[in-house]
Amino acid sequence: MVVLNKIYTRTGDKGDTALGNGDRVAKFSDRVTAYGTTDELNSFVGVARLVAEEDIDAALSRIQNDLFDLGADLCRPDMEKDAEAEYPPLRVTLDQVDRLEEEIDVMNDALDPLRSFILPGGSALAAHLHVCRTVARRAERLAVELGAHEPVNPAVVKYLNRLSDWFFVAARVANNGGKDDVLWIPGANR
């Protein structure tokens, strides 16, 4: 259990922060940027939950917990030392990716196929979910970039990739099963 008695520590006042393994890195490091963007995404999910109906809200609650798992995973780079750690590090698993895929399939089965690209919007929930989708894509790009030069759990990238798809399909569900999707009309304003 995490206990936070004091919120400010002053340890980062000079521009560095501690990773989950105790190493100190610059606050602008690729790793901190990747898990910081995941935290930003989690905040947007919290905003989406304000207007979500019960079934979507329950799924978003699970996603918020997964995103904390994902941030914990990213903040601990030394995966090869997991077995030696005093406490087993929290890692994203492929079971979490599989759950997203199953949820996507269930939601998508109830939707008509897309005949055009859609614009972010429609209902308030759909608009929020599209913001989540785009931030998830940015988090994914940052995790991939980090993985080009530092260890990253491959399940993290897969989860973020699937999560952006989940948000896209959930936005369509939130738009009256896709009936209220805002369709892109190429060249409409020429």
Question: How would you describe what is shown here?
Answer:
The chain is mainly α and 190 residues long. The mean pLDDT is 91. It has a single domain, classed as Cobalamin adenosyltransferase-like (Hypothetical Protein Ta1238, Chain: A, Up-down Bundle), CATH 1.20.1200. Helices cover 54% and strands 5% of the residues. Helix 1 packs antiparallel against helix 4 and helix 4 packs antiparallel against helix 5. A hairpin with a 5-residue loop joins strand 1 and strand 2. The longest helix is centred in the last third of the chain and has 24 residues. The strands form 2 sheets. A two-stranded antiparallel ribbon has the order 1-2. The chain has a two-stranded antiparallel sheet with strand order 3-4. The chain is built from 5 helices and 4 strands, in the order ββαααβααβ.
User: Count of DSSP E strands?
Assistant: 4
Shape descriptor reads elongated
Order of helices and strands: EEHHHEHHE
Helix content: 40-55%
> Treating each run of at least 4 consecutive H or I residues as one helix, how many helices?
5
What is the mean predicted local confidence, pLDDT? 91
Query: Which strands sit side by side, in order, in the main sheet?
Result: 1-2
GO biological process, one term: cobalamin biosynthetic process
GO cellular component, one term: cytoplasm
Domain Cobalamin adenosyltransferase-like: 7-174
Keywords: ATP-binding, Cobalamin biosynthesis, Cytoplasm, Nucleotide-binding, Transferase
In short:
The chain has 190 residues and is mainly α. The chain has helices spanning 30-49, 54-74, 94-109, 124-147, 154-174, and strands at residues 16-18, 24-26, 118-119, 182-183.
